[in-house]
Amino acid sequence: MSTAVLQARGVRKSFGHTEVLAGIDLDVEPGETVVVLGPSGSGKSTFLRCVNLLESLDAGRITVDGRDVGYDVRNGRLHELPPNELARRRRDIGMVFQQFNLFPHMTALENVIEAPVGVKGERRAEAVDRAVALLAQVGLAGREKAYPRQLSGGQQQRVAIARALAMQPKLMLFDEPTSALDPELVGEVLVTMRDLATAGLTMVVVTHEISFAREAADRVVFMDAGQVVEQGRPEQVIDDPQHERTRAFLSRFL
Amino acid sequence: MAALGEVRVSDLPTSAGPDLDVRDASRRKHPWRWLSAFVVLVLAAQLVQMLITNENFGWSVVASWLRAESVIRGLGVTLMLTVVAMVIGIVLGVLLAVCRISANPLLRSAAGVYIWFFRGTPTLVQLIFFYNLSALLPQLTIGIPFGPDFASFDTNTLITPLLAAILGLGLNEGAYMAEIVRGGLLSVDPGQREAGQALGMTNGRIMKRIILPQAMRFIVPPTGNQVISMVKATALVSVIALSDLLYTAQAIYNRTFETIPLLIVVCLWYLAVTSVLYVAQSFIERHYNRGARHQTASFWDYLRIRPRSQS
């Protein structure tokens, strides 16, 4: 078995007659930050949602930390897991959404401790201590009692990052985390994410921020029409793309 | 305005203002407001005069019956019926709503048929139907379907007027509550569910901690209205000879012919109960509005005479 935290093989997914993923292979090594670039509708968000099974796969296989997220292997076959077991396996995969999806009826602190206390059964006092530290880490010390609507978009997204980190995930998925933000708020979220990448968190980031890919990515994956077109070091893919489709996509950002 | 000759040091120059200033404009007159207010005042004065001078109201009779033991007992039956029927209605409503949005098509349509039937026939008819259930099913039996029976009951002794009332009102309420709960559940952004799933929460936990608390904001106000409607709907049970507030009053005025005073007693008690419920509802709504943008108006805002500030 490989050392990869995330291993995807031949992942296919269709919505109706539209094939969104046409056979994706991807490995993500521990501590690696992989940035997925590609035009809208290229399937990159769908792929990310397949990793923690918010979308089911039609074909192929995805393992996280060596285990299928929604399946057990018995007698050489995959068996679909019952819902509560699937929920258990999702604990190790953090996800940050484009629309933040904070729980609006809970304060920032309550958002962060909800899953550690309610899902993992951590002691409340410990969870609170760690949540306060995490909120400070994302630059929100002192805002523990704020409700999401009292925070700016950038602050909300940083609470969402702290909420995902509180589960101490082995893998973090970022689904266009800055696309819903006002331009002047994008920077603060990207800085938080870059710090996490530097600290050695294993991350897969779907984004349109080329500068973030250049600065923080260990590897850039370019997707188009449901396929991985090319991948490599950021300076290779971004500055010296080999494929026509990659060049066409990147030329729009210059 | 700054006094002449005084020199102010400021980053921004202060404007002296134009010759014609909206501040000094004459305000619009509102003759229709004054006229309509006058009409209302005249009508109110007439009403008060009638209440005082018309002896048919029989206020002394009202006062003597208001806290009579039989009336209070009738009120107790009305309140008990309201509570029991609402509890049945809410529990049934949540179950039906969950069935309505479940992935299982048979559950979905079964709940749909239930709601269709109970909302499509009058409550009064359903009440009389349950009261006369023995004509349809003389025996009620518990046992294995199509198999042996464990116990059998005579419908006439089992379905008392009280049970018929509880069944009629409760099962009917379940159908209405189901639609209210379903609307509330659907009003929560699907991203909330996904966020819960991504954190490894089970479906039950997502429902309890994430979806329901947010849906409550949409469920509680109409449920409050349902409770208030239920208080009044219980008056229907007087047709199946259950001694609620109205039936008790009817029993008394059939004897004493003080029809109007006793109906006033009934109205006063219904008003007292519904007023208390309005106040309770406004408190509960405020509780579930945590983190919400729009704060709701309190009970007193309905009755307030003070003009609203213009925005």
Automatic annotation (TrEMBL), chain A:
ABC transporter domain residues: 6-250
The EC number(s) this enzyme carries: 7.4.2.1
Enzyme class: translocase
An annotated GO cellular component: plasma membrane
Positions of transmembrane segments: none
Reactions the enzyme catalyzes: a polar amino acid(out) + ATP + H2O = a polar amino acid(in) + ADP + phosphate + H(+)
Main location per the UniProt record: membrane
Alphabetical UniProt keywords: ATP-binding, Cell membrane, Membrane, Nucleotide-binding, Transport
A Pfam family per the record: ABC_tran
Subcellular location as annotated: Cell membrane
Membrane topology (UniProt): Peripheral membrane protein
GO molecular function terms noted in the UniProt entry: ATP binding; ATP hydrolysis activity; ATPase-coupled polar amino acid-transporter activity
PANTHER family given in the database record: AMINO ACID IMPORT ATP-BINDING PROTEIN, L-CYSTINE IMPORT ATP-BINDING PROTEIN TCYN
Official protein name in the record: ABC-type polar-amino-acid transporter
Species of origin: Kribbella caucasensis
UniProtKB/TrEMBL annotation, chain B:
Gene Ontology CC: ATP-binding cassette (ABC) transporter complex
Domain ABC transmembrane type-1: 75-281
Organism: Kribbella caucasensis
Residue ranges crossing the lipid bilayer per the database entry: 32-52, 72-99, 111-133, 153-172, 233-253, 259-280
SUPFAM superfamilies given in the database record: MetI-like
UniProt-recorded name of the protein: Polar amino acid transport system permease protein
Topology in membrane: Multi-pass membrane protein
Superkingdom: Bacteria
InterPro entries with a match to the protein in the record: AA_ABC_transptr_permease_3TM, ArtM/GltK/GlnP/TcyL/YhdX-like, MetI-like, MetI-like_sf
Biological process, per Gene Ontology: amino acid transport
